[in-house]
Amino acid sequence: MSEIKENMLQRFLKYVAFDTESNDDTNTVPTTPGQMVFARFLKEELEAMGLEEVVLDDKGYLYATLPSNSTRKLPVVGFIAHLDTSPDMSGKNVKPRVVEYAGGDIVLDDKAGIVLSAKDFPEVADYVGHSLVVTDGHTLLGADDKAGVAEIISAIAYLQAHPEIEHGKVRIAFNPDEEIGRGAHNFNVPLFGCDWAYTVDGSAEGEIEFENFNAGSANFKIQGRNVHPGYAKGKMLNALRVATAIVDAVPAAESPECTEGYEGFFHLMSISGGVDSAELSYIIRDHDRGLFERRMAFMSRVADEMNVRYGAGTVALELKEQYRNMREQVEPKMYIIELAKSAMEKAGVKPVVKPIRGGTDGAQLSFMGLPCPNLFAGGINFHSRYEFVSLNVMENAVKTIVNIASSVKDL
Description:
The chain is α+β, with helices and mostly antiparallel strands. The chain is 30% helix and 23% strand. The protein is built from ten helices and 18 strands. It has helices at residues 3-15, 33-48, 143-161, 189-192, 239-249, 289-310, 327-330, 335-346, 361-367, 391-407, and strands at 52-56, 62-66, 77-82, 97-100, 106-109, 114-116, 131-134, 170-175, 196-202, 207-209, 214-223, 265-273, 277-286, 315-323, 352-353, 374-376, 379-380, 388-390. Helix 1 packs across helix 10 (391-407) and helix 3 (143-161) crosses helix 10 (391-407). The two termini are 34 Å apart. 45% of the residues are buried.
């Protein structure tokens, strides 16, 4: 095992031991105390490494600097990862182990019958010959995004150990609550002080993402009228039937399970209620701004049609725009994408430019004045008990970060 890989692995194994699930039901920042515990640990580690301008604020945002070793004034580049793990699966008492993968199924827990099946997850075949970190199948792994944290810090350590590699000032940051969409809300862009940055939060090797969905939400509140069902004729208005009429009006073929690539969708998140009242929650996504706006307008028409059909005031709709496609902010500075491509190629990695079918802190940061595309971190099957990460890919992520930092002078 190479020096980079061994040091990176030890960091990663320490980091996944921290329980850092975020929680959308709380209003604290960070939303869970474990994230601040992890941030304090990292602060001490960065200080022990001798980094400068190490700042941990009261909201769990951690910033640090590797000073320039160049005699020239160079642009300041940043690298960002998030502290939290998804609340979709427990991140407590993670039990990671390294598997030298030779193919076939990976048994995570024999007694419980939990298996990472090559049939169900055919992408695992791409990792034959790799060293994979997996769990015991009872928690997620936390590679999203503790792999990114480990890679960034390992890259900084490598640059420190190799002063012959010229680089400008490098800023790093770790933030809470990305998984619930709040990661950039309290990010101090002026304090970070970068010309541009990269989140290291992608998945498979070579991914470069600078296009994400335009995102919105639609919340339908339905007021029915409940009377005794035995005497309901001409009187009852069943809110649940109105809810099913709304679902029927939204194209089923434009749902997440029927779309891919640049195709947008309407995603029904929840239905609740009874005869008297009900509520439906949708999220709306599209990479194309015009199509996104048409999707939002379509939901307004659905609400209007329901009020015509069932009576004025039956349906109230709350539409919200959540975030926008960062492409419009990154596109004027495409040299930062070309720089990442070149850095990957130097590391022996084939760049794969693809749209994000989701959101990212980088999208919000880009609209806050910090162009911020996303780079691969290596994790696969995020948010699940079947999550794994390749140490080989993580090592290439470290090399990519080093290559970016040392290539800024070429711009």
